[in-house]
């Protein structure tokens, strides 16, 4: 990326809720501070918002989509809240599908052809992963596959509507995501650490793979169904994307 600023980084932290059904997200303020400093250092214009209702969150995303991003390289959204499969919980206890956010951003003309990076720190269900034992790591060969360039195509070839999105979730579907009251969420903590360590020489997807590994090595003490017994919870983030190029900050 060469533009300065790189683009807008919008950080939304939903930490308080209308009813007792959802606990306050203690420790999330640290995630905001760390992420804000990270994206500021990376050259983004950082905006932070807190405790948005469903309509307020939709309005903010819609407002972003109506801004002029011509001079920027990309857009970043870090959204932190409680969640369930496919949705995040807003401060009024209403849920908002992640897909609704993608739909709005997909219609932003000045972001067409540019990376739109969404980082979601939220549970995606209630299941808890206790991990599985293994004795040795399996060797996996990696091959980079590029589509052949069609030289016959004209420069004005249309870009697919949902091209250039990346959605990085703190956990896989149906599972919980862990957060500490003091150190913040496991995912955002590792995300910030890895970006600071590797952003000068690694692509985004390479860094996110390291984030996955680092989060997977963490353990969360969880109380068992039996009194006075504890088990260790595990967590693995998930990344899905339609990026057409490698992203370097």
Q: Can you describe this structure in just a few lines?
A:
This protein is an alpha/beta fold and 249 residues long.
What would your notes on this structure say?
Belongs to the peptidase C14A family. InterPro entries: Caspase-like_dom_sf, Caspase_cys_AS, Caspase_his_AS, Pept_C14, Pept_C14_caspase, Pept_C14_p10, Pept_C14_p20, Pept_C14A. A hairpin with a 2-residue loop joins strand 4 and strand 5 (87-89). The protein is 25% helix and 22% strand. The N and C termini lie close together (5 Å). With 249 residues, the protein is α/β, with parallel strands linked by helices.
Descriptive key words:
249 residues; alpha/beta; 3-stranded antiparallel beta sheet; 5 helices; 13 strands; 25% helix
Measured distance between first and last alpha carbons: 5 Å
Q: What's the oligomerization state?
A: single chain
Element order: H for helix, E for strand: EHEHEEEEHEEEEHHEEE
Identify the overall geometry.
globular
The overall average pLDDT, rounded, is: 89
Number of helices: 5
Share of β-strand residues: 15-25%
Helical content (DSSP H or I, runs of 4+): 10-25%
Task: Give me the secondary-structure category.
Answer: alpha/beta
**Largest sheet: spatial strand order:** 2-1-3-7-8-13
CA-based gyration radius:
19 Å
Low-pLDDT residue intervals, each spanning 5 or more residues? 137-151
Query: Can you count the beta strands?
Result: 13
Largest sheet: 6 strands, mixed
Family: Belongs to the peptidase C14A family.
Protein name: Caspase-8
Keywords: Apoptosis, Hydrolase, Protease, Thiol protease, Zymogen
Domain Caspase family p20: 5-127
